[in-house]
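Comment thread on ticket #2218

A.B. wrote:
> Attaching the input chain for the structure job we discussed in standup.
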Amino acid sequence: MSMLVEESALLTSLQKFFGYESFKGDQEAIIKNVLEGNDTFVIMPTGGGKSMCYQLPALLSEGTAIVISPLIALMKNQVDAIRGFGSDEGIAHFLNSSLTKAETLQVKKDILKKKTKLLYVAPESLTKEENVAFLKEIKISFFAIDEAHCISEWGHDFRPEYRRLRPIIEQIGKLPIIALTATATEKVQMDIQKNLNMLNAKIFKSSFNRPNLYYEVRPKVDVMKEIIKYVKNNSGKSGIIYCLSRKKVEEVASTLTVNGIKALPYHAGLDATARARHQDMFLMEKSDVIVATIAFGMGIDKPDVRFVIHHDIPKSLEGYYQETGRSGRDGREGKCVAFYSYKDIEKLEKFMKGKPVAEQEIGKQLLVETVAYAETSVCRRRVLLHYFGERYEQDNCHSCDNCLHPKTQIEAQDEVQLLLDTVIAVKEKFAAEHVVNVLTGKQDQTGK
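C.D. wrote:
> Ran it. Output below, let me know if you need it in another format.
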């Protein structure tokens, strides 16, 4: 597969297969690196054109590229899109638990006939012995690991089965790997590279700054009333509302519907057919708003999502960044509004109680960073970019609530002194809520 492709030939292929006139950002350099047979690590924000980085090299290479992807809906989406560009249905396939035996046989036939250039597989499908045996028989061009942050325990969407990928890939054969993700802090990046044994991979890291996105955090007061008002003020625009629980998703979706808003729920509790139907209705603009858990959105190619609302603050800043990144992918308006109450953080801390200690420690650290973002009075863009190891040099981004409406500053030396005295007086044994109750003279259960 190691081959050098001329610039003009790459551009011609881009136009031929996808109809685009030019590459975006680092796409061309990434594609060349993959075609040269090198390990490649791509960190590129949502909307940057990650999928092109493995789709075009797959179409130009001999054999079939294996794309490991975490969601069935995402695979279907991408396979349909590629088939839309080509004349032969067999050019792209997916292999997962949703296929019947006859469909699986057809997929394997097309691959053996060398028709298939891209095969999307779920990590679980790769663990099946019959699939590993089949993949050993065929000519594979390279492995692409999409949503690579799923490998890291420090990532916002950790999947244990992703950590078992490297031994399976090595069992199939020594092949180049391209790992791709929209979000990765330095820690997550290193974890992915170590786990995939690709420490020598060439890294392509794009800026995390999305200048067209507006960030705002509002106090969580009368949240449903606020959301209804917001959606009605943005009538006819597409939006996503994220909630942490399935129950809340259903509740918010039905409240919006009752108020004359075309809204649909999306979560892992719905059967696959309902999820696919709701997703398609949203993509086809038969529904304006999708109310979802984090199960929705990975790889969803809808460029004109105009707002993303977080009914509940997410568990990590990485999750928040990826979810907000689904708005304004066309470079136009994208409003990101999160509702924040410290009570939600306490709820998330309670959910972690039964988990292993190491997982709890990671979870707590991620929550501390989320709270810092929600409560900060400095530019939110600066805080977000700093989190991903990027400096934002401007004093005012003119596109977040803190820059447009700076908070009033007060001299709080006496209050801080009083707070520290109280913490010492209660012998540093109690959580923040109890300390606040002592300071405000309110009785709570702990204090009785």
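A.B. wrote:
> Thanks. Noting for the ticket: Residues 357-375 form the longest helix (19 residues).
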